[in-house]
Amino acid sequence: MKTLKDKIVQEGKVLSDIVLKVDSFLNHQIDPQLMKEIGEEFAARFKNAGITKILTIESSGIAPAVMTGLILDVPVVFARKRKSVTLSDDLYTASVYSYTKKETNDIAVSIDYIDSDDTVLIIDDFLANGQALLGLLNIVKQAGASTAGAGIVIEKGFQPGGDLIRENGTRVESLAIVSSLKHGKVDFLEEAVE
Ligand code: 5GP
Description:
CATH topology: Rossmann fold
Bound molecules: guanosine-5'-monophosphate
Order of helices and strands: HEEHHEHEEEEHEHEE
Strand order of the largest sheet: 5-6-4-3-7-8-9-10
Largest sheet: 8 strands, mixed
């Protein structure tokens, strides 16, 4: 998605060979116009997938997820992050290890908000090692629902998450795939179709 890639080049800050900071439009301040375009793009890519619900994770997945939900006209659920969640009959839970933050969070979704007859589209801001996405996929599985795929705003293609999840058989649609952050520069994987 060209507007997203341009924004990353203009405003993204390369913090190291593996970490990209995009606080000016996604992770702290939010650019609503860009989020709207992102929502339109995800909605277009998944329009024939029979989506009934969108699932994301707080907090940075919420903005692109809501825009997508608005266009597909389906509810948006966000998994809540906690240091630890006590097992409960009312919640689906999963443990998510963040290599970036070097900490484990439990994520939880109320059983009230995903049903076994839902077809779920998962949305998240970044895909790196894939742990957050695996946790969300696990929650959809616990609910007995099906997953149509995952929409990712920025995938870091040089980290293993994308391959891991695709090899699992899950459709992953990333709007920008970063191939390298070396030498303080953002390079993108060129997609065949824009
Ligand atoms: P994963 O579980 O795929 O390793 O990482 C997913 C989560 O880590 C994302 O939802 C995001 O919050 C965070 N993350 C991973 N890499 C980056 C990065 O380079 N920049 C930012 N801003 N967040 C990242």
